[in-house]
Amino acid sequence: MIVGLTLILAAQLVGEVLARVTGLPVPGPVIGMALLLIFLVLRDRYARTAARILPKPLVDGQLESTGRGLLANLSLLFVPAGAGIVGRLDVIAVNGMALAVIVAVSTLTTLAATALTFVWVARWLRTGEER
Amino acid sequence: MTGDFAVWVYLSRTPLLWLTVTLLAYAVADRIATATNRHPVANPVLIAIALTAAVLEVTRTPYATYFEGAQFVHFLLGPATVALAFPLYEYRATVLRALAPMLAALLVGSVVALTSALTLGHLLGVPREVIVSLAPKSVTTGVAMGIAQTLGGDPTLAAVLVMLTGMTGGILVTPLMNLLRIRDMRARGFAAGLAAHGVGTARAFQVDVVAGAFAGIALGLNAFLTAMLAPIAVSFLK
Questions:
Q1: Any transmembrane segments, and where (chain A) (predicted)?
Q2: So what's the ipTM on this one?
Q3: Domain boundaries, chain A
Protein backbone atom coordinates (compact mmCIF):
# COMPACT_ATOMS: atom_id res chain seq x y z
CA MET A 1 0.00 0.00 0.00
CA ILE A 2 2.82 2.41 0.89
CA VAL A 3 4.65 1.87 -2.41
CA GLY A 4 1.42 2.37 -4.38
CA LEU A 5 0.53 5.49 -2.43
CA THR A 6 4.05 6.83 -2.97
CA LEU A 7 3.67 6.44 -6.73
CA ILE A 8 0.27 8.17 -6.67
CA LEU A 9 1.62 11.07 -4.56
CA ALA A 10 4.70 11.33 -6.78
CA ALA A 11 2.45 11.56 -9.87
CA GLN A 12 0.47 14.34 -8.19
CA LEU A 13 3.65 16.14 -7.14
CA VAL A 14 5.07 16.12 -10.67
CA GLY A 15 1.62 17.15 -11.95
CA GLU A 16 1.48 20.14 -9.56
CA VAL A 17 4.98 21.20 -10.57
CA LEU A 18 4.15 20.91 -14.29
CA ALA A 19 0.87 22.83 -13.82
CA ARG A 20 2.72 25.69 -12.15
CA VAL A 21 5.72 25.74 -14.49
CA THR A 22 3.62 25.68 -17.68
CA GLY A 23 0.78 27.85 -16.34
CA LEU A 24 -1.74 25.48 -17.96
CA PRO A 25 -5.30 25.88 -16.63
CA VAL A 26 -5.41 22.20 -15.63
CA PRO A 27 -5.27 21.11 -11.97
CA GLY A 28 -2.01 19.42 -10.94
CA PRO A 29 -3.83 16.21 -9.92
CA VAL A 30 -5.39 15.94 -13.41
CA ILE A 31 -1.90 16.09 -14.95
CA GLY A 32 -0.90 13.52 -12.32
CA MET A 33 -3.76 11.31 -13.55
CA ALA A 34 -2.38 11.53 -17.11
CA LEU A 35 1.12 10.67 -15.86
CA LEU A 36 -0.15 7.66 -13.93
CA LEU A 37 -2.03 6.55 -17.03
CA ILE A 38 1.20 6.74 -19.05
CA PHE A 39 2.94 4.72 -16.34
CA LEU A 40 0.26 2.00 -16.50
CA VAL A 41 0.43 1.81 -20.31
CA LEU A 42 4.24 1.53 -20.31
CA ARG A 43 4.26 -0.95 -17.42
CA ASP A 44 1.97 -3.36 -19.25
CA ARG A 45 3.58 -2.88 -22.64
CA TYR A 46 6.99 -3.79 -21.25
CA ALA A 47 5.57 -6.20 -18.68
CA ARG A 48 8.62 -8.44 -18.49
CA THR A 49 11.09 -5.62 -17.87
CA ALA A 50 8.64 -3.98 -15.48
CA ALA A 51 8.35 -7.15 -13.41
CA ARG A 52 12.13 -7.23 -13.13
CA ILE A 53 12.88 -3.60 -12.23
CA LEU A 54 9.75 -2.29 -10.46
CA PRO A 55 8.91 -2.97 -6.80
CA LYS A 56 6.50 -5.89 -6.52
CA PRO A 57 3.49 -3.87 -5.18
CA LEU A 58 3.47 -1.85 -8.42
CA VAL A 59 3.05 -4.89 -10.65
CA ASP A 60 1.06 -7.42 -8.61
CA GLY A 61 -2.21 -5.48 -8.35
CA GLN A 62 -1.60 -3.82 -4.98
CA LEU A 63 -1.25 -0.44 -6.69
CA GLU A 64 -4.67 -0.90 -8.28
CA SER A 65 -6.34 -1.83 -5.02
CA THR A 66 -4.87 1.25 -3.31
CA GLY A 67 -6.37 3.39 -6.07
CA ARG A 68 -9.69 1.60 -5.87
CA GLY A 69 -9.77 2.21 -2.11
CA LEU A 70 -9.32 5.94 -2.66
CA LEU A 71 -12.03 6.12 -5.31
CA ALA A 72 -14.51 3.99 -3.38
CA ASN A 73 -14.90 6.82 -0.88
CA LEU A 74 -14.63 9.78 -3.22
CA SER A 75 -17.82 11.25 -1.73
CA LEU A 76 -16.25 11.51 1.73
CA LEU A 77 -13.46 13.71 0.42
CA PHE A 78 -15.84 16.55 -0.45
CA VAL A 79 -17.19 16.88 3.09
CA PRO A 80 -14.54 19.25 4.56
CA ALA A 81 -14.78 21.71 1.65
CA GLY A 82 -18.56 21.42 1.62
CA ALA A 83 -18.83 22.17 5.33
CA GLY A 84 -16.80 25.33 4.69
CA ILE A 85 -19.20 26.36 1.94
CA VAL A 86 -22.14 26.21 4.37
CA GLY A 87 -20.42 28.91 6.44
CA ARG A 88 -19.99 31.10 3.38
CA LEU A 89 -23.52 30.89 2.02
CA ASP A 90 -23.80 34.59 2.93
CA VAL A 91 -22.03 35.47 -0.34
CA ILE A 92 -25.05 34.33 -2.34
CA ALA A 93 -27.56 36.05 -0.02
CA VAL A 94 -28.01 39.15 -2.19
CA ASN A 95 -28.81 37.31 -5.40
CA GLY A 96 -29.83 34.06 -3.72
CA MET A 97 -33.05 33.32 -5.58
CA ALA A 98 -31.68 34.22 -9.01
CA LEU A 99 -28.52 32.17 -8.40
CA ALA A 100 -30.49 29.12 -7.25
CA VAL A 101 -32.60 29.27 -10.42
CA ILE A 102 -29.53 29.74 -12.64
CA VAL A 103 -27.58 26.90 -11.03
CA ALA A 104 -30.54 24.51 -11.26
CA VAL A 105 -31.58 25.36 -14.83
CA SER A 106 -28.05 25.59 -16.20
CA THR A 107 -26.97 22.32 -14.56
CA LEU A 108 -30.00 20.46 -15.88
CA THR A 109 -29.51 21.88 -19.37
CA THR A 110 -25.82 21.01 -19.34
CA LEU A 111 -26.46 17.44 -18.14
CA ALA A 112 -29.10 16.89 -20.83
CA ALA A 113 -27.12 18.52 -23.65
CA THR A 114 -23.96 16.55 -22.83
CA ALA A 115 -25.63 13.15 -22.50
CA LEU A 116 -27.85 13.62 -25.56
CA THR A 117 -24.91 14.73 -27.74
CA PHE A 118 -22.94 11.70 -26.57
CA VAL A 119 -25.77 9.28 -27.35
CA TRP A 120 -26.63 10.86 -30.71
CA VAL A 121 -23.05 10.94 -31.98
CA ALA A 122 -22.48 7.36 -30.79
CA ARG A 123 -25.63 6.19 -32.56
CA TRP A 124 -24.89 8.18 -35.72
CA LEU A 125 -21.37 6.70 -35.98
CA ARG A 126 -22.67 3.18 -35.49
CA THR A 127 -25.24 3.54 -38.30
CA GLY A 128 -22.37 4.95 -40.39
CA GLU A 129 -20.39 1.77 -39.80
CA GLU A 130 -23.30 -0.46 -40.72
CA ARG A 131 -23.74 1.23 -44.05
CA MET B 1 -17.60 21.21 35.46
CA THR B 2 -14.13 22.67 34.99
CA GLY B 3 -12.94 19.12 34.32
CA ASP B 4 -15.42 18.70 31.46
CA PHE B 5 -14.42 22.04 30.11
CA ALA B 6 -10.73 21.08 30.14
CA VAL B 7 -11.55 17.96 28.14
CA TRP B 8 -13.49 20.02 25.62
CA VAL B 9 -10.65 22.54 25.31
CA TYR B 10 -8.22 19.71 24.70
CA LEU B 11 -10.42 17.93 22.17
CA SER B 12 -11.43 21.01 20.25
CA ARG B 13 -7.77 21.77 19.67
CA THR B 14 -6.59 18.44 18.32
CA PRO B 15 -7.19 17.30 14.75
CA LEU B 16 -8.54 14.02 16.18
CA LEU B 17 -11.98 15.32 17.14
CA TRP B 18 -12.84 16.98 13.82
CA LEU B 19 -11.38 14.20 11.76
CA THR B 20 -13.58 11.77 13.69
CA VAL B 21 -16.63 14.01 13.32
CA THR B 22 -16.09 14.16 9.53
CA LEU B 23 -15.76 10.39 9.21
CA LEU B 24 -18.69 9.77 11.55
CA ALA B 25 -20.93 12.19 9.64
CA TYR B 26 -20.01 10.38 6.42
CA ALA B 27 -20.60 6.95 7.94
CA VAL B 28 -24.07 8.04 9.07
CA ALA B 29 -24.80 9.66 5.70
CA ASP B 30 -23.66 6.57 3.84
CA ARG B 31 -25.87 4.43 6.05
CA ILE B 32 -28.86 6.63 5.23
CA ALA B 33 -27.99 6.48 1.51
CA THR B 34 -27.76 2.68 1.64
CA ALA B 35 -31.02 2.42 3.59
CA THR B 36 -32.80 4.36 0.82
CA ASN B 37 -31.21 2.06 -1.78
CA ARG B 38 -28.92 4.91 -2.92
CA HIS B 39 -31.82 7.14 -3.82
CA PRO B 40 -30.47 10.24 -5.63
CA VAL B 41 -32.03 12.64 -3.10
CA ALA B 42 -30.27 10.87 -0.21
CA ASN B 43 -26.90 12.04 -1.55
CA PRO B 44 -24.27 11.02 1.03
CA VAL B 45 -22.12 14.11 0.34
CA LEU B 46 -25.04 16.42 0.98
CA ILE B 47 -26.14 14.64 4.17
CA ALA B 48 -22.60 14.43 5.55
CA ILE B 49 -22.01 18.13 4.87
CA ALA B 50 -25.30 19.08 6.53
CA LEU B 51 -24.50 16.96 9.60
CA THR B 52 -20.97 18.35 9.90
CA ALA B 53 -22.12 21.94 9.40
CA ALA B 54 -24.80 21.42 12.06
CA VAL B 55 -22.22 20.15 14.57
CA LEU B 56 -19.98 23.14 13.82
CA GLU B 57 -22.91 25.51 14.25
CA VAL B 58 -24.09 23.99 17.55
CA THR B 59 -20.59 23.89 19.08
CA ARG B 60 -19.77 27.33 17.61
CA THR B 61 -16.56 25.96 16.18
CA PRO B 62 -14.71 28.21 13.74
CA TYR B 63 -14.15 26.59 10.34
CA ALA B 64 -10.37 27.05 10.64
CA THR B 65 -10.36 24.89 13.81
CA TYR B 66 -12.48 22.25 12.13
CA PHE B 67 -10.28 22.23 9.05
CA GLU B 68 -7.16 21.46 11.09
CA GLY B 69 -8.65 18.02 11.59
CA ALA B 70 -10.56 17.70 8.35
CA GLN B 71 -7.60 18.67 6.18
CA PHE B 72 -6.38 15.07 6.24
CA VAL B 73 -9.53 14.01 4.44
CA HIS B 74 -9.51 17.06 2.17
CA PHE B 75 -5.91 16.35 1.20
CA LEU B 76 -6.88 12.98 -0.27
CA LEU B 77 -8.88 14.69 -3.03
CA GLY B 78 -5.64 15.18 -4.96
CA PRO B 79 -4.45 11.55 -4.80
CA ALA B 80 -8.02 10.37 -5.53
CA THR B 81 -8.07 12.50 -8.68
CA VAL B 82 -4.76 10.89 -9.73
CA ALA B 83 -6.30 7.48 -9.01
CA LEU B 84 -8.98 8.16 -11.66
CA ALA B 85 -6.29 6.83 -14.02
CA PHE B 86 -7.05 3.26 -12.84
CA PRO B 87 -10.66 2.94 -14.09
CA LEU B 88 -9.64 4.92 -17.14
CA TYR B 89 -6.90 2.41 -17.91
CA GLU B 90 -9.03 -0.60 -17.05
CA TYR B 91 -11.72 0.51 -19.52
CA ARG B 92 -9.32 2.00 -22.07
CA ALA B 93 -10.78 -0.03 -24.94
CA THR B 94 -14.28 1.27 -24.15
CA VAL B 95 -12.95 4.81 -23.78
CA LEU B 96 -11.00 4.78 -27.05
CA ARG B 97 -14.01 3.45 -28.95
CA ALA B 98 -16.06 6.39 -27.62
CA LEU B 99 -13.56 9.09 -28.55
CA ALA B 100 -15.77 10.90 -31.10
CA PRO B 101 -18.96 10.99 -28.97
CA MET B 102 -16.84 12.12 -26.02
CA LEU B 103 -15.26 15.06 -27.83
CA ALA B 104 -18.60 16.15 -29.31
CA ALA B 105 -20.29 15.94 -25.91
CA LEU B 106 -17.39 17.82 -24.31
CA LEU B 107 -17.66 20.71 -26.74
CA VAL B 108 -21.47 20.95 -26.60
CA GLY B 109 -21.63 20.48 -22.82
CA SER B 110 -18.93 23.01 -22.06
CA VAL B 111 -20.50 25.66 -24.32
CA VAL B 112 -24.00 25.01 -22.94
CA ALA B 113 -22.74 25.22 -19.33
CA LEU B 114 -21.11 28.58 -19.99
CA THR B 115 -23.73 30.21 -22.21
CA SER B 116 -26.73 29.05 -20.16
CA ALA B 117 -25.22 30.46 -16.95
CA LEU B 118 -24.22 33.77 -18.58
CA THR B 119 -27.49 34.23 -20.47
CA LEU B 120 -29.69 33.41 -17.47
CA GLY B 121 -27.59 35.70 -15.27
CA HIS B 122 -27.98 38.50 -17.78
CA LEU B 123 -31.75 37.95 -18.12
CA LEU B 124 -32.29 37.86 -14.35
CA GLY B 125 -30.35 41.08 -13.90
CA VAL B 126 -27.49 39.61 -11.86
CA PRO B 127 -24.52 42.03 -11.47
CA ARG B 128 -21.58 41.44 -13.80
CA GLU B 129 -19.02 40.33 -11.19
CA VAL B 130 -21.49 37.73 -9.93
CA ILE B 131 -22.16 36.47 -13.48
CA VAL B 132 -18.40 36.15 -13.99
CA SER B 133 -18.16 34.02 -10.82
CA LEU B 134 -21.00 31.86 -12.20
CA ALA B 135 -19.23 31.14 -15.48
CA PRO B 136 -16.93 28.32 -14.26
CA LYS B 137 -19.54 26.68 -11.98
CA SER B 138 -19.28 23.24 -13.64
CA VAL B 139 -15.51 23.08 -13.20
CA THR B 140 -13.60 21.54 -10.31
CA THR B 141 -13.19 24.05 -7.43
CA GLY B 142 -9.49 24.93 -7.71
CA VAL B 143 -9.66 25.71 -11.41
CA ALA B 144 -13.02 27.50 -11.08
CA MET B 145 -11.63 29.84 -8.41
CA GLY B 146 -8.67 30.61 -10.68
CA ILE B 147 -10.93 31.34 -13.67
CA ALA B 148 -13.25 33.58 -11.61
CA GLN B 149 -10.29 35.52 -10.25
CA THR B 150 -8.69 36.05 -13.67
CA LEU B 151 -11.98 37.34 -15.09
CA GLY B 152 -12.57 39.77 -12.23
CA GLY B 153 -15.06 37.69 -10.24
CA ASP B 154 -15.06 36.61 -6.60
CA PRO B 155 -13.21 33.29 -5.99
CA THR B 156 -15.13 32.53 -2.76
CA LEU B 157 -18.45 33.06 -4.50
CA ALA B 158 -17.21 30.87 -7.36
CA ALA B 159 -16.32 28.09 -4.88
CA VAL B 160 -19.79 28.26 -3.30
CA LEU B 161 -21.47 28.15 -6.72
CA VAL B 162 -19.26 25.23 -7.80
CA MET B 163 -20.30 23.25 -4.73
CA LEU B 164 -24.00 24.07 -5.23
CA THR B 165 -23.70 23.01 -8.87
CA GLY B 166 -22.02 19.77 -7.84
CA MET B 167 -24.79 18.98 -5.37
CA THR B 168 -27.53 19.86 -7.86
CA GLY B 169 -25.92 17.73 -10.56
CA GLY B 170 -25.19 14.83 -8.23
CA ILE B 171 -28.81 14.72 -7.11
CA LEU B 172 -30.51 15.40 -10.46
CA VAL B 173 -28.39 13.37 -12.86
CA THR B 174 -30.04 9.99 -12.24
CA PRO B 175 -33.70 11.15 -12.41
CA LEU B 176 -32.97 13.33 -15.45
CA MET B 177 -31.23 10.54 -17.37
CA ASN B 178 -34.09 8.17 -16.57
CA LEU B 179 -36.55 10.80 -17.80
CA LEU B 180 -34.58 11.20 -21.05
CA ARG B 181 -34.39 7.39 -21.35
CA ILE B 182 -30.60 7.48 -21.64
CA ARG B 183 -29.35 4.07 -20.53
CA ASP B 184 -25.81 4.38 -21.90
CA MET B 185 -23.62 4.47 -18.77
CA ARG B 186 -20.83 6.15 -20.74
CA ALA B 187 -23.09 9.09 -21.62
CA ARG B 188 -24.59 9.31 -18.12
CA GLY B 189 -21.19 9.34 -16.47
CA PHE B 190 -19.66 11.76 -18.93
CA ALA B 191 -22.53 14.22 -18.38
CA ALA B 192 -22.23 13.92 -14.58
CA GLY B 193 -18.48 14.66 -14.63
CA LEU B 194 -18.81 17.50 -17.11
CA ALA B 195 -21.73 19.32 -15.47
CA ALA B 196 -21.03 18.50 -11.82
CA HIS B 197 -17.23 17.88 -11.62
CA GLY B 198 -16.02 15.77 -8.65
CA VAL B 199 -19.36 15.50 -6.86
CA GLY B 200 -20.95 14.24 -10.08
CA THR B 201 -18.03 11.84 -10.52
CA ALA B 202 -18.50 10.53 -6.98
CA ARG B 203 -22.17 9.92 -7.78
CA ALA B 204 -21.25 8.19 -11.03
CA PHE B 205 -18.90 5.80 -9.20
CA GLN B 206 -21.73 4.85 -6.85
CA VAL B 207 -23.86 3.84 -9.80
CA ASP B 208 -21.40 2.17 -12.16
CA VAL B 209 -17.60 1.91 -12.65
CA VAL B 210 -17.78 2.66 -16.38
CA ALA B 211 -19.89 5.75 -15.64
CA GLY B 212 -17.25 6.76 -13.08
CA ALA B 213 -14.40 6.34 -15.56
CA PHE B 214 -16.17 8.54 -18.12
CA ALA B 215 -17.06 11.11 -15.45
CA GLY B 216 -13.38 11.35 -14.51
CA ILE B 217 -12.37 12.06 -18.12
CA ALA B 218 -15.11 14.68 -18.49
CA LEU B 219 -14.02 16.40 -15.27
CA GLY B 220 -10.43 16.74 -16.51
CA LEU B 221 -11.26 17.79 -20.07
CA ASN B 222 -13.91 20.30 -19.06
CA ALA B 223 -11.57 22.05 -16.60
CA PHE B 224 -9.23 22.63 -19.52
CA LEU B 225 -11.86 23.65 -22.09
CA THR B 226 -13.80 25.96 -19.75
CA ALA B 227 -10.60 27.79 -18.84
CA MET B 228 -10.11 28.38 -22.58
CA LEU B 229 -13.72 29.32 -23.39
CA ALA B 230 -14.74 31.33 -20.31
CA PRO B 231 -12.74 34.49 -21.19
CA ILE B 232 -14.24 34.42 -24.71
CA ALA B 233 -17.79 33.90 -23.43
CA VAL B 234 -17.45 36.63 -20.80
CA SER B 235 -16.20 39.12 -23.41
CA PHE B 236 -19.70 38.97 -24.95
CA LEU B 237 -21.16 40.35 -21.71
CA LYS B 238 -21.71 44.08 -21.74
A1: 29-46, 67-86, 98-122
A2: 0.91
A3: 1-87, 88-130
